[in-house]
Amino acid sequence: MIQIDTYINSFSRYIEQGKREPWELILLLKGLLNDKIDSLGEEYLIKDHIAIHKTAHIEQNVVIKSPAIIGKDSFIGANSYLRNGVFLANNVNIGTGCEIKSSIIFDHTAIAHFNFIGDSIIGSHVNFEAGSVTANHYNERKNKDIFVKHEGVLKNTKVHKFGSLIGDHVKIGANAVLSPGTLLAKKSVIKRLELVEQIRES
């Protein structure tokens, strides 16, 4: 099993992994968020299964669909779209025009602007430059199963939607694309315009 704590130091402080793989957590994310929302304190404004910390700042024309948790001192730029279960920890910065879908993003991470983050788990102090994306589906393949490569071993996730597991302090350059099933260790650096394909055929 892939231990998320080896990628993200603070993961277990927020979410219990148990015996679930990262992509299994994404499948369960809506339920996990609904349970977590029920336990939040008065520092959150909660309505229709959307919890927003009172210190968070949300600009105009942002759409947030339930369930979602927006943590302390987080920022969401104008015209961004959050859907299908989103968890932002503390001091997360989501820039203008981003789409975040079914994802968990940890402390002090910045998603610059015009990014897509889909079905992914993103560590702390990660920086996505403008236009970089986590692809979450193989549109071009007949076999849609997403494989990951962990410690030299191929694993079939048996899901058709999974983006990336990204460790703490990773830097991702502008307009880079992370293919479905990308795993990035702590402090990895992805160049601008780079295509990351850890599994070329499946």
The assigned CATH architecture is 3 Solenoid
Order of helices and strands: HHHEEEEEEEEEEEEEEEEEEEEEE
| Distance separating the two termini | 20 Å
The CATH topology corresponds to: UDP N-Acetylglucosamine Acyltransferase, domain 1
Please report the first level of CATH classification, the CATH class: Mainly Beta
Number of helices: 3
Q: Strand fraction band?
A: 25-35%
SS class: mainly beta
Q: Give the helix level as a range of percent.
A: under 10%
Q: What value does the Rg take, in angstroms? A: 16 Å
Number of domains: 1
CATH superfamily: Hexapeptide repeat proteins
How does the overall form come out from the CA principal axes? globular
Question: How many strands, which pairing sense, and closed or not: the largest β-sheet?
Answer: 13 strands, mixed
Mean pLDDT: 97
Extended strand count = 22
Low-confidence stretches are none
